[in-house]
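Checklist before submission:
- one chain only
- standard amino acids only
- sequence pasted in full

Submission:
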Amino acid sequence: MKLQVAMDLLTVEDALELASKVAEFVDIIELGTPLIKSAGLSAITAVKAAHPDKIVFADMKTMDAGELEADIAFTAGADLVSVLGSADDSTIAGAVKAAQAHNKGIVVDLIGVTDKVTRAQEARALGAKFVEFHAGLDEQSQPGYDLKGLLSAGEEARVPFSVAGGVNASTIKAVQSAGAEVAVAGGSIYGAQDPAAAAKELRAAII
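Returned file contents:
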């Protein structure tokens, strides 16, 4: 299982600083949506230039103009680009077309999708490299939130998937046991007093 750090920061400088601390322990470096909206596509280029050996994920959360938005992110240096699972099939298909042209990949993010299992299977059929079973920060903050729902949906869907939404040292083994190909850790790394140590601990927990 691969480890992905989600950098939900706001400046290129902060992103580069965090990436430099944790890169040796992660496989995928994700530029979070707030970072891309705040700093622009140049953030993708900067991170890829600093870490050319890492998979760089641009969390664009595209909802429309799939081919166009994916193309500009890939051109900026992204290896993976996200499209929302709630988008029209044609949007996902357009993004996949751009990915094929660049020899890169599309990740379909199921945040906000009610029937995650069905949409995961549909997204995979449309050409997604993998799907992300994702609970956003707002959902995680609600009383009673539990990562188990994402894990069971991932297991049931039987497609390549990642999990984002509460992945930390106490849950990462369960994420791997569910069959996830990628564990996405955000706040448990960037919010830690020592992000490098936090990333190292997560890496060590992966069998």
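Reviewer check: The longest strand covers residues 55-62.
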